[in-house]
Amino acid sequence: MPLLDRELEQLLRTFLGGVFVLPVLALLAQSLLAPLLAFLCFYDQRGAIKEQLKDYFEDEQGSRAAPAHGPKLGQMLMQLQVDKTLGYYVFMLGLAFVVAGLVEEFLKFWMVQGACCCGPSRRGCCCKSLLCCSKNPSAPAFTAIKRRQEHPQYHGALLRGWLCHPSRLLFFHRPHANHAFVVFLAVVAGALGFSVMENTAYSLIAPTFTDKIYTAALRSISSTPLHCICGGITGVRLAEQLLEHRQGGGEERGTSAARSDLGRLRTKLTVIFPAVLVHGIFDAQLFLLMILVTDEMEEAHPTRYGVVLPTILSLIVLVLSFVYLRRKLHAMENKMNETRYIHVAVDLESGERLGAVNGDFDDAMDFFGNDEEEEDSDSNDESLGTRKVRSVFDM
């Protein structure tokens, strides 16, 4: 499938957003959620944990140790002795499905669908646009490009709108029939960028050079496929939402309906739920293995419990999720073919050229046009297209 230069640029920007933006946002969110989850799950053991932390820091101060961060923080947390109560297992599941799965998969979705403020008339909507959970749908934000070209005073708006540039990928005016596949690629690109930065960070904080190489290799064959598969699942489900509106599968049809539907929190959670489930299961089985395998078992059979068993369990999750993704891709391809046939039928009946179907867009098209004007033109084009489709199939 040939991609336009604009689409290639959007995919590159999405990848760079996954590299530089998503890890920072994920770190902030997880740094807030993990302590809150620990406080709720270990509230009954707070006294014992407080005493252990006090003793740990007193011993470290006596040895003039460095501040607890990076691997040292993880070592400190692993040394905590907590009772394996119900709260302990809830904490592990919360880490897997909420702190890791939900946060990271939602950010991958947000990188493509999200919007933020890009003009003086939207100064008070940053949080609303970031969350995109209001009843009123958030509008795509990258009209700042055109504003900067036409009005130099909007130069500062470019920075605020750049992060949300891929949202134009979803709400492109009159997209071609392969548009759904481009949306799928955009989510995968963001997931791949996030995985690259995450793997790099984990490798750099490893204590020795051998550990750095081992960590990089291990995460490249496990974490990278996981993020790409989960991103692909989200991308497919997101593309299906757009195809349903283009085919008239929902209550409304077209760009405005898709924008409104994807602006609802319920729709967002529905789209990312399978990816969150896969991500959570992948992490949960590793956490469960860490709980069940004792130090004595690992010392007696280090290869079996340290390499073989985790690899087998991880491969099972990856293979099953890849099979699911492949089936969803096949179903999306069938929907794309149906949409392509409808557009061809409309163009043949109306006598128009097939450029909009094959991706031959006019360079003079208002790609970064006004959103309000775009919605009006969308509704007119969609009503006209609906009448044409009916006339074709009523012949």
Automatic annotation (TrEMBL):
Report biased composition (Acidic residues) as residue ranges. Answer: 370-381
| Transmembrane residue ranges | 20-43, 86-103, 177-197, 269-293, 305-325
Q: Where is this region: Disordered?
A: 370-395
What protein does this entry describe?
Answer: Uncharacterized protein
Quote the InterPro entries the UniProt record gives: PrsW
Q: Which organism is it from?
A: Phytophthora kernoviae
A Pfam family it matches? PrsW-protease
Q: List the taxonomic lineage.
A: Eukaryota, Sar, Stramenopiles, Oomycota, Peronosporomycetes
Keyword annotations for this protein, in alphabetical order, are: Membrane, Transmembrane, Transmembrane helix
Molecular function GO terms recorded: peptidase activity
